[in-house]
Every structure is written in C-alpha cells, then in structure tokens.
Design brief:
alpha/beta, five-stranded antiparallel β-sheet, five-stranded mixed β-sheet, 25 helices, 55% helix
C-alpha cells in the first residue's frame, strides 16, 4: 500500500446535498439507458458501460458516511434502466442492480484502503494508477464474478464468457470515464471559472477530434488503411491535448475515442472489422486498443502536468532565492560594519564597502576580489587583516579577537574581530568570514539598548503606579468637589476644599506626565489643522514668554493636517516654549515654524521613524544651548538641570512620549551659546480637520435614568453614587460582576446604563457588559479604569471602540460622560 506522508494532508470531501444524489442517479440512468438502447443486441453490447465509471467517480467524490444513499440511488437507477430498455426479466434486474451498487461502493473502499484511508488525489500519477489498479483487480473483477455467477444461474450462460462480458465494459469505464470525471472535479476545485479561451480551445479539440474519428470509423475509408489512419488520427490529437490542454481535456478525448470506436465496432464499422470475422474477437481488439491508448495518453498528460508543476515550483524557488540573495547582498553591502570572506586558498571572494574603506586607509594597498589576504598587510603589522587569523578560521575554529587599526587621520581604533568557517552542504570548509565591530560604537549600542530596556521598565512601573494613584486622586478630587458644593460659598471650608481639589489636579497632571513618558496616556486623536491650533494658542504663548522675548512666526500657509490629541499637542508645545523661555532669562527670540516635509529613507534611518510625508512644527530659541553631555539625557525621565523644587524632570520625557504615541518623532539640535531647535514630526493625515470635543462640561440634563454602578473600590463606589444621585439618577450598586448579575431581574430589566470599572474581581467589566448586552440589549455601557484605553487594548481585554472614562475624573467629567452615552441614539 502507498504510505501517507506526514506532510500530506488528506483531501477534504465536502458534504453532499440531495441534488448531488438525485443528479448522480439521473446521470447513471441516462448513461445506462443510452448504452442499452443504442447498442445492437449482440454479445458486443457490453463492450463499454460508462454508467459504472460514473458510479465509481461519484463514490470517490462522496463522504463515506453518505455513500449508502448514493448506492441506493445507483441501485434504483440501474434497476429502472434495465426494466425500461433491457430484457424484461424482473428477477435478473433485481439481482444485477445491487451488484452494480456494490461494485461502485467496493471500488471506492479499495482505492482508499490502498491509500491508507485517504481520498485519492487524481493530480498524483501514483493515485491515478491506484484507481485503475484497484478497479481492474478489485471491484470490477468482483462485480464480474458476481455478475457471471448470476448470469449462469439465471440464463445458463458459461461462467467465464459471462464474467468477461461483465468485467471488461466496467473496467473500460473505470479506467477511462472515472479519471475524466475526477480530473474535471479536481480542476474546478483548484481554480476559479476557467477562462473562455481555455473552454473554447477544449471544445474545439473535442469537436475536431470527434469529426476525425467519425470520418475514420463511419465514412467508408478503405479497411486496409483505416487502422493506420486511426492511429495517426488519435495519437497526434491526444498528444497535443496532453501537451496543451492538460489531463482533464485529454481524458475526455479518450472517452470520445472509446465511445466512438466501441460503437462503430459494435455496428460492424471501423478499422477493427478486418481483424476477425468473430464479433467477440474484433471487439477485443477494439477494447485493447482503446485501453492502451487511453491510459498511455492520460499518463502522458499527468507526467507533463507534474513536470510543468515542478518547473513552476523550481522557478518560484529560484525567484525566492534570488530575492533572498538580493536582500542578503543589500544587507551585506549596506552594513556599516566591515565584512569580508575568503575561499579555502585565502583569496578574497567578497567584502563590503565598509571593509574596503577600512582596508584602503589601513593597509599598504587597496584590496580587490581574488587578492590573497596575506598580501593585505596592515601598515602597523598584521593588525587582524592578514592571514594568521584567517587560517585559524579555515581550520574550523570560531573565535573573536581584539585588533587595533589606524583610521584615516592616523589614530588607532580598537575593533573586535569575529571569525567563522564557511561550509558547503556536505559540511566541508570552503572558506572563512570576518566581521569587524568598532569597540566604541559597540559599547554605545549596548548602552543604548540598556537605556531602552531601563526606560521600558520605568514605563511599566509608571503605568502600574499611575493606576493606583488614579483611584486615590479620583476620590480626593471628587470628595473635595462635594465638600465645596455643600458649604457656604466664600467660607474658610470652601477655600480649603478648593485647595484640596487643586492639589488633586496637580497630582493628576503629574500622573499624566508619567503616563505620557510611558506612552500609556489616554489619547483622543482627531484630524487637526496645525495652523488653526497654533492660532488658538497664540495668546497663551504671549502670556507665557513675557515681554522680554520676541516671538516670530514662520512657515507654510497650509501645513498638512495631522491626527493627534489637540490638548496633548498643546501641552507639548507649551512645555517646549516654557523651556525656551527659561533658556533666555535675559531675553531673546523664540521662533515657531511649520513645514511640510517628505522624509526619505536615508534621513529616516536611525531616527526610529518611518519615511513618508510629515508636518513639522519647530520651536527654536536663541538661548544658552544644551551641552553635548546633557543633550543625550534630556528625554530621560526625572532628568533635570533645574534647581531642586523647580522641575520634575518629566517635561521633555512627556513631550517625547506623547509624540511617539501619536506616531511621530522629536528631533533636537543645539549649540552652546547659540540656541536650541526642537522639531516635532507628525505623520500627514487625510481628511478635513475635525471639531475638538468639549471636555469638562456636564450636559444640562435632569437625569432620572437607572444606572448600575459596578466598582470594587468602596471609596469610589460611594463617591460616584453620590455624584450621580445629586444629578437625579437612580443608582444601583455592586462591588463585583457576580453581584451585578445577582440583582433582581426587574432591576436589571429597568437599567438604562451600565457604569463599570474594567478591572473587577472575577468577571471583568467587558465580560459583564457582554452578558448585559445579551440579556438586556437596550442597556448602554460606559467603562472607567485607572488603566488607559491603549493599555487595555494592548492586553487584548478591550474592544476596538468603546465608551471610556479614564481615572482620575471630576464630578463634571463623570456627569458629562454619562450624559453623552445616554444621549446617544
């Protein structure tokens, strides 16, 4: 039996519908009826029985558990055709019909058993052979034995002629018609609807081939030449179809050849009449010719198809290899690290421009391909470029060593050289490679990597701390506002409560700065016109910088739109302007400029920003400038050069984090004594500028709706309840999702809004909302959390678009968010 490869997935057979079974039964009835009605009543009537080929193909294309229904349809169709067009012998037909159904079912089972349980893939030449072999020595032979015994018992016919008369026509059908049907079914599965040109070409082939066969068989061509003419007519046509049209059309050509040849011979016409006076013998010659020609042509078509597929796969592999080699070559040539390779004779076979440049000013002469690496000797000794280390690598050793090489100005630079042997597919060493790393640059890379990891860790810490702070700050601000609203205006308590609220606000601002540095702050990005935003900000900038600093505006009249949170972009600009003001204590010039730029890959490389169109907003001053040793630290959190108590060290970290979160970048250039320029790059956005959403204003609505408040922090639960009830809402409370689900059904059915924290013990707020939408679709949802919307989405816990109120929030923020959600249609 053929082994099933572990990499080969079984072909999935779709479930069949009633129309499939009815169509198959009808097709079987028509083919059987045509055979019985169209052939003369002689022994040759059974020479070709296409209905059995249809039955086997249909069985192979039907799932195993549905085959009993197909067998029943075949049985009924065969019985009906025999009764209508065959001999009117009821007992014989009741015997023959089950044998035909069993034969088809057994044929499919044998083929799959031979293939270790999988369905055959007609595209495989081996599977094609399995179908023919299993039917030849299996199902059709078993059917022939059963049919021969039945005919002997019913009609007294000799067993072996009766066996042959049953087995031969079914074998012809399963070897010719079954592959044609399977090829066509496979072709429909592999491709979409074939092009009209392919269909037309195939139909023209069948029409032309059929006309030639008819001419050879039926139109009185001399008998002596007609056998040769049949060969000359069939083989070129079928060979052309195998080469041009593929297995499916070739198989249908063999079906046409078999049908015409068998019919003509049965009626005493065609080239096989001269072979014998015995009808049985000349039909045997016809059957042998059709079988050999059909199988040969289908094998040829399959072989050509597999060769074309192999050639296509080879071409695709070569194309992929070419692309891969081009990428590797581009990386090799474009690397700033010097790289070179030698063969087993120490001849240079490859080196990149960085290595050639290093060799050009580090050695006595420039290296070229084919040069012996021994001749590339450093002016300061071997220096790592000579042959000593290369020979060690050719011996199979992988190692690193430190070398010192002179630069163009004569200074010695330390490099770390890495050597490795190059091996072929058999594991033989055919060369060696060398990579040189500038030790100073390598240390800088490691330092940058360590700094990035440290900042990421600090960002995660800031995010976690901010979550807890947000809960506390919400309570401070909320209760402070409640106290202010419940005491006499202007009283000492009212003033003290106001200071509490202000302190809470400053704490909230500090938390936002921490989140901005960590790139986890809540953003509400919209399409913004930078010119309009700067125009709105102009009065504030004038107040911030004072009278001693000259403000200059430059830039394009229509800067590109950007998608950003306008409030956060204003905060970024104000931070930069405040820093510029502090750098010019004796006055100076502050310039704000806009520009539209296309960042090409060369400029974008190394700046962690992709190339493309950007709107640039620059803030430059003529202040003291930033020293180089300070410049490399300015975006680090809590780094400040201001006096203790005058700065948090989060201003520029917030600037960089906010712009990065918006998909942009911040570039800085500074010279001591000249000034500093900060350039903000924001990606160009499509569409018109959007109106800024109103914030901090509660809608003027009376309330009255029923709200389910779910919050696991008791302080915030009580605070939020008081704020909502003061606005006229009816509030139902729960500390967990399980408590919320356990509320009375009448209470849940009357809810207008679910206001829930996201992080709850047990059931999360999102899961609770999903349950609520299922049970009570009319209930709207609003989520609150100390975690940011982006963090929740990054953790896979949030839908892409959901009403969200971040903590900390004031009473105005809470009532405004609730009102907006409830007022949605």
């Amino acid at each position: 039996m053929a082994a099933l490869s572990t990499a080969e997935a079984p072909r999935l057979i779709p479930e069949r519908t009633l129309s499939w079974f009815l169509g198959t039964a009808l097709g079987y009835f028509l083919l059987s009826s045509l055979t019985l009605a169209g052939f003369p009543r002689t022994e040759a009537v059974v020479a070709f029985f296409p209905a059995s080929g249809l039955a086997l193909a249909a069985m192979l294309l039907t799932p195993r558990h549905q085959r009993p229904w197909l067998a029943l349809g075949i049985l009924v169709a065969d019985f009906t055709a025999d009764q209508v067009f065959g001999r009117p012998i009821l007992v014989a037909h009741l015997t023959f019909a089950p044998i035909m159904a069993i034969e088809a079912w057994l044929g499919a089972w044998l083929v799959e058993w031979w293939l270790d349980g999988r369905s055959p893939d007609i595209r495989s030449l081996a599977d094609f052979g399995t179908i023919v072999t299993a039917s030849a020595i299996g199902s059709t032979l078993v059917g022939g034995v059963l049919g021969g015994l039945a005919q002997r018992g019913l009609f007294g016919l000799p067993f072996f002629p009766a066996l042959w008369n049953w087995w031969a026509p079914d074998l012809m059908a399963s070897s010719v018609l079954t592959p044609a049907l399977l090829f066509s079914a496979q072709q429909r599965q592999e491709t979409a609807t074939p092009s009209p040109g392919v269909k037309l070409e195939g139909l023209l082939f069948l029409l032309t081939f059929g006309a030639v066969l008819w001419e050879v068989h039926m139109n009185g061509i001399p008998i002596g030449a007609s056998q040769v003419l049949l060969l000359l007519a069939a083989l070129p046509f079928l060979g052309w179809a195998a080469l041009r049209l593929g297995p499916a059309w070739t198989a249908w050509g063999t079906v046409l050849l078999t049908a015409v040849s068998v019919a003509a011979t049965a009626y005493g016409r065609g080239p096989f009449i001269a072979t014998s006076a015995d009808p049985f013998s000349r039909m045997l010659w016809c059957q042998a010719f059709c079988m050999v020609t059909s199988l040969s042509m289908m094998v040829l078509a399959q072989t050509l198809r597999e060769q074309r597929s192999a050639a296509l796969r080879l071409a695709e592999a070569l194309q992929a290899l070419t692309v891969s080699n081009a990428r590797i070559q581009a990386q090799f040539q474009g690397s700033s690290d010097p790289m070179a390779m030698v063969d087993s004779e120490l001849r240079l076979v490859a080196f990149n421009p960085a290595w050639a440049e290093l060799v050009g000013h580090s050695t006595s002469g420039a290296a070229t391909l084919g040069t012996q690496v021994d001749l590339v000797s450093s002016s300061a000794g071997d220096g790592g470029l000579g042959g000593g280390a290369w020979r060690r690598a050719l011996a199979g050793d992988r190692f690193r060593e430190s070398v010192s090489l002179p630069t163009q100005d004569g200074n010695m630079v330390a490099y770390e050289a890495s050597y490795a042997p190059l091996q072929d597919g058999a594991g033989l060493v055919i060369g060696a490679s060398q990579v040189l790393w500038n030790v100073a640059e390598l240390d800088q890379r490691h330092a940058e990597q360590a700094r990035t990891q440290r900042l990421e860790s600090m960002g995660r810490l800031a995010c976690g701390v901010a979550h807890d702070f947000n809960n506390i700050i919400t309570a401070i601000i909320g209760y402070g506002e409640l106290i202010k609203g419940n005491v006499e205006p202007g009283s000492r308590v009212e003033r003290q409560a106001g200071e509490v609220v202000k302190a809470g606000g400053r704490a909230a601002d500090l938390t936002k700065q921490m989140l901005a540095f960590a790139r986890r702050q809540v953003m509400q990005p919209i399409v913004v016109d930078p010119a309009a935003l700067l125009a709105e900000l102009h009065p504030l900038i004038e107040r911030v910088i004072g009278e001693g600093i000259q403000l200059t505006w430059k830039g394009v009249d229509a800067p590109w739109k950007v998608k950003v949170d306008p409030g956060q972009l204003e905060q970024v600009l104000v931070n930069l302007i405040v820093n510029a003001r502090d750098a010019m204590p004796k006055g100076g010039r502050l310039t704000i400029e806009t520009a539209n730029i296309d960042l090409d890959p060369l400029i974008a490389h190394g700046r962690e920003v992709p190339p493309g169109p950007y709107c640039q907003i620059s803030v430059s001053d003529t202040g003291s400038g930033i020293p180089p040793e300070v410049l490399k630290h300015i975006f680090e959190p809590f780094f400040t050069t201001k006096e203790r108590g005058t700065g948090t060290g989060l201003g520029l970290a917030m600037v960089e984090g906010t712009i990065r979160q918006a998909g942009g970048a911040v570039l800085v250039y500074s010279e001591v004594g000249t000034g500093t320029v900060f350039r903000i790059l924001l990606p160009k956005a499509d569409g018109a500028a959007e109106a800024r959403p109103l914030a901090g204003v509660a809608p003027s609505r009376k309330g009255g709706e029923h709200i389910l408040l779910v919050e696991d922090d008791p302080t915030l639960l009580s605070l939020s309840r008081q704020i909502l009830e003061s606005a006229g809402y009816t509030v139902h409370m729960a500390a967990t999702g399980a408590e919320a689900k356990a509320l009375p059904a009448a209470t849940l059915a009357a809810l207008d809004l679910l206001l829930t924290d996201v992080m709850l013990p047990g059931i999360s707020g999102f899961d609770l909302a999903d349950w609520m939408r299922t049970q009570h679709p009319q209930t709207k949802c609003l989520f609150v959390s100390g975690y940011t919307e982006e963090t929740l989405q990054a953790q896979g816990q949030a839908p892409l678009d959901f009403p969200f109120l971040p903590k900390p929030y004031s009473s105005v923020d809470l009532l405004g968010a609730v009102g907006r959600v409830l007022d949605r249609p």
